[in-house]
Amino acid sequence: MDVVVVGRGMFGSAAARHLAATGAQVLAVGPVAGDPVPGSGDAVFSSHDDEARLTRLQDRDPRWAEVTARALAGYRDLEVASGIEFHHPVGCLIASRPGGDGRSPDPIPQLSARGLTHDLYQPGDRGWAERWPRIDFPATHAVAYEPGPAGYIRPKRLIAAQETLTTQFGGRLLTDTVVGVQALGDTDGYSVVTAAGHRVRTPNVVLATGAFTNFNDLLETPVELELKTEVVVLGEVDAADAEELRAYPTVKYLNDGDVLDAIYMTPPVDYPDGRTCIKMGANIVLDTNPTDLSTVQDWFRTDTDHDHLSLLEPALQALWPDVAFTSVRTKPCIITYTADRFPLIVERRPGLVVATAGNGGGAKGADAWGSMAAGLLRERLSRC
Ligand SMILES: Cc1cc2nc3c(=O)[nH]c(=O)nc-3n(C[C@H](O)[C@H](O)[C@H](O)COP(=O)(O)OP(=O)(O)OC[C@H]3O[C@@H](n4cnc5c(N)ncnc54)[C@H](O)[C@@H]3O)c2cc1C
Fold this sequence. Notes:
binds flavin-adenine dinucleotide; alpha+beta; globular; D-Amino Acid Oxidase, Chain A, domain 2; 8-stranded mixed β-sheet; FAD/NAD(P)-binding domain
């Protein structure tokens, strides 16, 4: 085995595919989101266990914009090669008060600055409502429409596409949780131990373990990460609204709120339980920063309807004034941040790469982040 990729999430599945494509013998180990690993409980959770993630070219940070654009340019090839569609280029509506909301700069000028095609509606111009009459923004806000390829991706399908290709390249997948990575001296590689009792010796490891990177004895010394709780609200729509609203764009909305801010939203998407839901998320005053494993595990199991629904539901309804949601519920998740708000893709010690911290926006560019992680091992693997 040339390399073990720990974590079969957004970054890990991409890294494994890029590594396998070079001819390396790859083993990817991790639970499949939503499917607890038999025998090991649900000790680790995924930040992509959902049906949609926004994607767009607009970004305030040129480094992010460049990486995301690279990934976006490759979506179609990945879909064709794997036979799995995951990209819905419905576009993205960006709404902001001119000048921003005091927390974040106005994202709309970034569209022109980056030379991105868009339609612009100044505050008070409700021209956008002619195309999307069911959605609403305040008259104080400018609204810009970034067309496809902006839109959303289905994260679990993207992972399935990556893993289909990984196995086609000869890579192997193991549904298990890693409970230890030990360095075998300075040059003898690593021993990777799983909850089900597997012990794999390998010269190279990629830790793509998201919010769980500093837990389960994966690293001798922790990397600097800040975890933040995040809650989304899922508003179920009836069949007629699902049909009408499905092709609506995604939304990024700087709403100036004291209780919640930095709203993002997807149009109706089908969920595995049979419901079709509009999803909305935001930063909320109730957000916390858990630091230990049991608090993070408890958070993923928390019934967040109890205290978050009353804050999120009015914001969702305000965006869709005449939509009668047939059910509304919330779902907890975790965002993993670095101090510089850029993903951590680094070789920590020879042959041990850490690829984590999507900083709330890692899904759309995951293929490129995974490729960067794989690239850090290229020279070592060429010597194998
Ligand atoms: C509510 C929410 C909304 C978001 N919206 C967007 C969006 O619209 N657009 C966007 O681009 N990004 C978005 N993001 C961010 C995006 O989902 C993350 O950046 C992305 O999932 C990070 O990928 P990852 O591989 O680092 O982590 P994950 O996707 O969490 O994958 C890590 C994987 O590692 C596994 N793992 C952990 N520990 C172990 C272990 N010990 N052994 C084996 N496996 C392990 C986990 O089970 C998991 O599957 C959002 C995040 C959240 C929480």
